[in-house]
Amino acid sequence: MLILGIETATPQVGVAVGGHEGVLVSFHVNRRPRHAEMLAPGIEFVLRQARIEIREISVVAVDVGPGLFTGLRVGIATAKGIAQALRVPMIGVASLDLLAFSMRQSPKLIVAVIDARRGEVFVGRYRQVPGGVQRLSEHRVASPRDVATELASTREECLVVGDGAIRYAEEFRDAGRVELVEAGQSSPSAAALVQLAHARALREDFVQPTDLHPVYLRKADAEINWEVRTGA
How far is CA 153 from CA 175, 176, 186, in A? Predict the structure, then answer.
């Protein structure tokens, strides 16, 4: 079983391929040009480096968000197109789950935080369990200050990871017993996507391309701006 993983929920573009032997090759880039310009070359790169033909892919996994609207649309549309062309199933994994999974070695309360723009963040809480992490709360949108206040009230050690933690570092540092993960690990990992997708593939926890949808959690900025202008 070979899995192609596509991750575009943040400014980073990530692609990885792997299977029973683990992650074979991964590619991540976080600079302009982005998403639409870098995704196709990234897919070609990992397949070439792994010496795999696209027709050998048996599952396509994709980050379904929450995250940047444009990035999610590009990544999910590309993933669906490949899956439909190959006639293979898909697996969707949440961006916050990917961030938390990369921190699964930590015994602290893991808080995944993605910059949602407009002074808000997407956030989820997790706890280490054998083999991975367990989600403790529903994903939601909140202000960094509200999240920091909640963490301070828990009175336990917290590990905060994600580009939202980097952008609002001062808010979180004031929360008390909080450790911020460095910027180099602040984006969801395509390699983690392949790892999580492989475990679900073994359980045949698939979806068909037509049934896979992005998780936005809020309206797009363009839609919000339109409603403001029209007085909706």
Answer: 8, 9, 24
Task: Name the residue range of residue 220's domain.
Answer: 2-94+188-230
Tens digit of pLDDT for each residue in 172-225?
Answer: 988 889 999 998 899 999 999 999 999 999 999 999 999 999 999 986 554 444
Bridge partners of 5, per DSSP, are 16, 61
Which pair of structure tokens corresponds to residue 205?
A: 């926890």
Claim to verify: residue 108 and residue 165 sit in the same structural domain: yes
- Choose among 115, 92, 90, 153: nearest CA to 30: 115
- The total number of structural domains in the chain stands at 2
Q: List the CATH number of the domain containing 178.
A: 3.30.420.40
For residue 30, the model assigns a pLDDT of 86
Q: Tell me if residue 99 falls in helix, strand or coil.
A: helix
CA atoms of 78 and 72, how far apart (whole Å): 10
Instruction: Give alpha helix (H) positions in 51-143.
Output: 69-86, 95-102
pTM: 0.91
Count of C-beta atoms within a 10 Å radius of residue 229: 8
**Cα gap 141→124, rounded to integer Å:** 9
